[in-house]
UniProtKB/TrEMBL annotation, chains A, B, C, D:
The keyword Oxidoreductase applies. This is Oxidoreductase. Residues 142-263 form the GFO/IDH/MocA-like oxidoreductase domain. It comes from Paraburkholderia silviterrae. GO terms for biological process: NADPH regeneration.
Amino acid sequence: MQANERAQPLRVGVAGLGRLGRRHAGNLAYRVPGATLAAACSPLEDDLAWARDALPEARLYRDYAELLVDTSVDAVWLVTPSALHAQQIVDALRAGKHVFCEKPLSLDVAECERVVEEARRFPDRQVTIGFMRRFDPSYHDAFEQVRAGAIGRPFLVRSQTCDLNDPDGFFVRFAPGSGGIFLDCTVHDIDVARWLLGKPRATRVFAAGAVALHEGLREYGDVDNGVAICEFQGGKLAMFYASRTMAHGNDTSSEVFGTAGALAIGHLPRANRVEIYDAHGVRSVCTPTFFDRFEEAFLIEAQAFVAAVRARHGGEAGAVEHAQQGATLEDALEATRIGFALRESLRTGQAVTL
Amino acid sequence: MQANERAQPLRVGVAGLGRLGRRHAGNLAYRVPGATLAAACSPLEDDLAWARDALPEARLYRDYAELLVDTSVDAVWLVTPSALHAQQIVDALRAGKHVFCEKPLSLDVAECERVVEEARRFPDRQVTIGFMRRFDPSYHDAFEQVRAGAIGRPFLVRSQTCDLNDPDGFFVRFAPGSGGIFLDCTVHDIDVARWLLGKPRATRVFAAGAVALHEGLREYGDVDNGVAICEFQGGKLAMFYASRTMAHGNDTSSEVFGTAGALAIGHLPRANRVEIYDAHGVRSVCTPTFFDRFEEAFLIEAQAFVAAVRARHGGEAGAVEHAQQGATLEDALEATRIGFALRESLRTGQAVTL
Amino acid sequence: MQANERAQPLRVGVAGLGRLGRRHAGNLAYRVPGATLAAACSPLEDDLAWARDALPEARLYRDYAELLVDTSVDAVWLVTPSALHAQQIVDALRAGKHVFCEKPLSLDVAECERVVEEARRFPDRQVTIGFMRRFDPSYHDAFEQVRAGAIGRPFLVRSQTCDLNDPDGFFVRFAPGSGGIFLDCTVHDIDVARWLLGKPRATRVFAAGAVALHEGLREYGDVDNGVAICEFQGGKLAMFYASRTMAHGNDTSSEVFGTAGALAIGHLPRANRVEIYDAHGVRSVCTPTFFDRFEEAFLIEAQAFVAAVRARHGGEAGAVEHAQQGATLEDALEATRIGFALRESLRTGQAVTL
Amino acid sequence: MQANERAQPLRVGVAGLGRLGRRHAGNLAYRVPGATLAAACSPLEDDLAWARDALPEARLYRDYAELLVDTSVDAVWLVTPSALHAQQIVDALRAGKHVFCEKPLSLDVAECERVVEEARRFPDRQVTIGFMRRFDPSYHDAFEQVRAGAIGRPFLVRSQTCDLNDPDGFFVRFAPGSGGIFLDCTVHDIDVARWLLGKPRATRVFAAGAVALHEGLREYGDVDNGVAICEFQGGKLAMFYASRTMAHGNDTSSEVFGTAGALAIGHLPRANRVEIYDAHGVRSVCTPTFFDRFEEAFLIEAQAFVAAVRARHGGEAGAVEHAQQGATLEDALEATRIGFALRESLRTGQAVTL
């Protein structure tokens, strides 16, 4: 990596400067060796004001099209509204850029397929979808242990995405556009399951749900707690749980069971290494949000993307593997396909065959 | 209770002296205040030889019918093969006995219904089916916390029954008679879920499974790992996992999620309070079998049954509640009904509506 | 054991029917195979009234001397005030009884020595001092692992006895007679350390203390938090911590370090297997008192004593080992000697050589 | 901080490019906003070759004196042999530099005092000694909780520094120069204890030790396992344990007890959030070395130093507090003084009064 650090840095332009976008921009500007934050783009004046202060060396644009014509930008980093992702990826590829795009690729399977097809025309461009859990050190360690055969043949993943309850139910307003709990939350668990099980294709799914607290979701056919089973080719299985009503914090965990053992990742979502002994007993405070839980993963994800692009350019051995560490467009398509089937199953009460 | 201990003891006759039967017999003979082990019954000479040595004060019978005509036996304790349970319960009730019967009530729903109907004719007889988890101190504590409102309204249970792998696959031979993994193992989790959720009725289930290690199960349509979802009336949910292939021990755990918090019972199936620090890291040895995990529950279950019968006879306040602590025939019927539907779903790949 | 259970039971007489005495009496009456509670003794009318109700089959005495002349009592069980222990043991031995005595043997080293000497005249009588931790299943498992060489050569024990704070400071009134925190609490840890390290003799100790909450202790030279180091022959070491001011419960734990690993017993004093997920984080409720933590140990201790006496009488192989499972008078003498030295060190601020 | 990031960066020169020096250099070069690594210095050709490759923008020196005359260096970062620290700090201050110096300040109390005195002449220079635990997020969280009163008045700290055993005993060769286990390892725990207890002065100490595995230490009067008690003004206490013979990894943990609760930091030194379920039970792999455990602390420590210096220059509110987050020379002096007394106590077997 040291050699890379001296090579020409990768010049990145971030599109989207909301809460998560700002975090990505800060990482790319100050914490990713081999990258410079060359440009940032948002239609919102507030975002640009923030950028003028926090990202003094970045060129600022209001319009994504302007970013794409900036020839000193090598890669775009999309943290824009989900509905824009698909077209923005295609446009970026046509403009010759590498692309990192936050999940989801799209809430529409056909649109996912169009992007996959289009991207095949640009095989020398790196495209990564932001399933950041793959870069969390604990998830990564589990993945490597599975790959090394530590648990024999993996055949079952249980995985959950559980968010701290927002008593204001602010998110209910976004229910129409979020795609529902399975496409918004479980899509991460779907990607984790496929990644840990060797990327099998799903064959059948079943889902059910409950509205525990947020009655407003009912009119959109959505739930605040969802459970699901997914069957894969080769007799592999996954169980998913997603919740928006936890009292204790963001509780994201996964387990992978194999023929010779099992691994659990993230049991007890402790915020740090402190335990408190008081009248409540012995307790650990929990990570409040996915930002807190996956802060490090977001950073490593950015470092890995930059390293992957530079490895391609450097013609380095291992470049292909580097490039595949993150989720590909095909992975994102498959996760969306499964998420859709779960939503369909929730709606109909029937198992859905893929 | 002290008053009870001086009252006339309950005279119990155990039928079935296999591994679990012997444990029940030893508890009743030596560790249950207010009970005496008056008789024991088995058709096997080995069992009777064991009993002559270990239970010197018990009258011994080869034939269940003889036990039933022994008028100095107040209650029978059935630890016999599952296929006999239903008829033996009915016979015992007709002979005027109270009945404790190991799970399952029956592997046939219609037969369960016949027993329920017959038992209605004997309202003053105590009949309890041995879902011992209800008496495990940790499960009981969780139940009491839920009842006291500690987690708000409970709406989801996740529960698992995972056994240490038997490399010889000895249990495969019993697959034809066990009813399959859901009726044999998950039936405990079904009872736990209904008990913690307020005894709702199931409305729809879906199940899937995998054969991870024991290929011989395929010919019986059984699996060594099964997953399931159960929807209940009132929008409540349960997820189940059963496995016969764990590498670390018997891992039985449950979680109940409510609108204001959650409780986990049995996470990390540590055998005791010892942690080992060595070249493997920091570790806890696990309970190898359900006997080790639920030893205390079997004892408390017996104590509770005896206390319940004596409370009925003593006309004590709280007698009804005592009597309902364990699983009733109706609970066992509902657990069997759900277990059957899970087996059907596994077979068909479709959701099953109840 | 089954053979024993048919042999003549050991007839026990309990002396002292306070809180702990009643627990011992209840265990011996109803939960110890091979024992009967033949008699009980207390000078207090309240205690005797309790006994008439709870122990209907026991002969009741006001006077310890009456208990000793009851020839149908084989063993006495002393749960009397500490100051009486030494003489009561001697008197019981002279009356031909086996003796179980709660700790401490005495708060006076010379008196301990007199009892040891006197007891040598009765080699066929079983005398055990109630260091119940040895019978806790987790402590016992650790002991067996150490003995089997699992951690190599053990050379260091850390052990603590920490009690839930009593805001009323009721115990301060007993400070004059308790012998101080080291003789009252740490004496258990001293016994654990010697037991796990192979019963070495102490060579030097140092102690210090703090009054965190209970200022009233100062006038007795006592503290509510004490720390100590003990050096043993052969270069072995122990560290002790005792506290009366915990906010979370009774927290009794020990660690033993060896040349090839370490064992921890009782880290995280969870009351059971339930974890609570709520706005405080994820927590375990703790055992409030040593009664709750060591309930099982008290029972096993009684079973082991009875088994040991019966094994002696039965001339069984292993009888000697059985008899030595609990703490001997010599163990109690050595623990008292070390406890005294700690008190002396606390008083003088100097290391004390033994 | 964003404003700072645009201000003139702090130009740092690292002296010493061994294993830890290289880590500091890499952090300062690439991961500390507001800093640039302007120069690096080592007498060793290997180190310089590494630096030419890894730190292409740094000016390289063989001689510390050259670094001090480089006027474009604002601060020096000493990761040199311990014996050089004291004089190098003084020389740096006289050359007008801010100073970060790895612990220990010196192994000689008088020399520590000389540095403290000399540094008083340069009140506008930032001098921090590298007790990095203060910057570990978990230690920092505990410190903030204590400061906020969460556990009432803190009165006792238990703290340990336990290293994975090196079977080759390589470190034995360095025993003559390390100052012994208390000055080399426990000095961190001493600083933690004083920091969490409000920086009290020690009044008396006692130490003992054992040679568990590394017999070669005996000739230097050193041990591979040491235990100690430290009494502070105001009736506060600390207990320390240091070991070089752990089987499971680097196990650094601390506890602070207060009148209303306690906090534990670092119990169970798990490497990450993965748990392994296999034939050994359920286990966590541990951090092998202090590098792995405190990687993040080293980075935050560097960020805090840089922020503190820049805050001084910016005349910012909170600058003084920032500047005091790390250990001052006075803290290092006091830690050394206590470490010395522990060594003296180990040697003499007597308590040592300070």
